[in-house]
Structure formats: structure tokens, C-alpha cells
């Protein structure tokens, strides 16, 4: 296929590109990325060196730009779109929701409309479990769980999901929505929990944990997620929603303690900070439908996946130092001070 991947310089998008080029020999991929603070061309430097101009092409563009999206789809005769492009950090969405509406809602609509006009064969929209809201102590999210987002970020993703549904129902558009639990793995920007805690633990700094640390997440290695997204692209049912989960429910406090043990650092580094507004208590994904229809299930358990991630960070000090921009550090420090 000739695939347009949006947000391919980000964390999950770049891992997806490695999956595609590691498993197929014929696909042509066009990577569209706006290159915000979290989009890093260094994430895919080796792919660029090996495939650029033959099977890989890069376009510096915004998915909210209608002319750019139409031009790119037509120029490369794109057959399928995988939409990873999104503003995704909950704390930033609380600080300023506007960019989340612009990219996640307006950008998705622009991409959908350009794809519809182009006569696309496949469109996979990558979403999140956060659109479902928060769970109690029991049960799991299914694809039929009502949407109940509790942050500006998750609300913007839920709106985008509904736009995909509307295009499927109104225009018979070949759209698929995937929803996934918390990702971790190589190339994750260090404002997210695991890389942030890794960096602070390694430096001997306090590790800020929201509230009592009892918020529970279902963690999935990014390689498992990307394998699932690619399976949905190639074998998914148009109009379907597919959940992906890691079968790895742990509280934030348990996760931080596990990371500290693997780094041989003391738990005394943990510091509890005021909880953030609208903090969902628990997420857990039921991926029964995905397993039944696509044959997918997670393969990497949390303990091994976390150790592999820590090892990767340890082997990529140069990458870590380059992505830790002053703007990133200033935002995170200011945010935690307010907490």
C-alpha cells in the first residue's frame, strides 16, 4: 500500500514506522508531521537514511491545513491513512485546551474530508482509552462503553472519534477507530510518566506522584500497540472500533516503585504532589473483540518491557539530552510547582 502516516516523528508514530519497514518490503510511506516540541526527526533518522526517496517520504505539514492535505494525498496517490497526529499531554491540555481542539478535532476533520474527496481505501484513526472516562474498582472498557471524557485532551479525542463515525455513517467512509491504553517504550517524550520518572530517578531528584498514587493504568508496550494498529489497517472491518490493552494494570505508585527497583534507587525519592484536576482513577481495556476479529493480543509483559525501555534510555543518552529542551523543562517545573 501507499500509506500516509500522520505524526510519524512522534513517539507512537515513529515506532509504527519502524514496525512497517521491519515487516514489509513493498509499502511506500509518506510521513506528515508538524514538528511540534514532541515531533523529533531524530526518532526516524535510520529510516530516513535507508529509504528516503524510494519507499519513504517526509512532508512538513499541519493536518489542519486543507490544501496541504489534499496536495499530499494526490501527489503520492495515497491509498490508506493512519492518523497518529495529536496533542496528547493531559497536563498541557489543562493548561491550554485550544491547541488540542485545533489539532485533534479540526485537524482530524480536515484529514477526513481530504481523504473522502481523494477516494481513500482505508483510514485508521488512533485514539485513546481516556475517551471512556474513569472506571470504578471493577470492570473494563469495551468498545460499547459510552464516551465520558474528563479532560480537555480526552474530550478532543472523543470529538475526533465521533467525526470518524459520522463520516462512516454519512459517506460510507472506510474509517476505523483504535483505542489503546497507556503506551511506553523507545522514543517517548520525557514529559510522560515513565521517561520523566526515569530521568529524575537517574539524577537523584524527587519523583512527583499525583495524589496518593492510587490511580490505576493498563500499560502496553508501544510495539504491541503498533502491531495492533497495523493489523487493524490491513484486516480491520470498516466502521469498527478496536480496543488494545496490555493486561498490565498497576497503580502509578506501584509503577514508580517498580522502576526504582529496576534502577536500584530508593523509594525515598518519591514525593506526593497535589492531584491534577479531573484525574481519572482507573483505566482497563477489554480487547475481546480485537482478539476475536483480528487475532491480536499483547505479547510483552510490563516487567520485561519496562526493563527493556530503561535499557534503551541508557543506551541513548544523546537522544535524551537533545529532546530535553528548555521549553519542556520550564513547563513541567512550573506545572509541578503549582501542584
TrEMBL record:
Species: Desulfohalobium retbaense (strain ATCC 49708 / DSM 5692 / JCM 16813 / HR100)
Primary enzyme class: lyase
Keywords: Lyase, NAD
Superkingdom assignment: Bacteria
Residue ranges of every copy of the NAD(P)-binding domain listed in the record: 4-308
Listed cofactors: NAD(+)
Similarity comment: Belongs to the NAD(P)-dependent epimerase/dehydratase family. dTDP-glucose dehydratase subfamily.
Name of the protein in its database record: dTDP-glucose 4,6-dehydratase
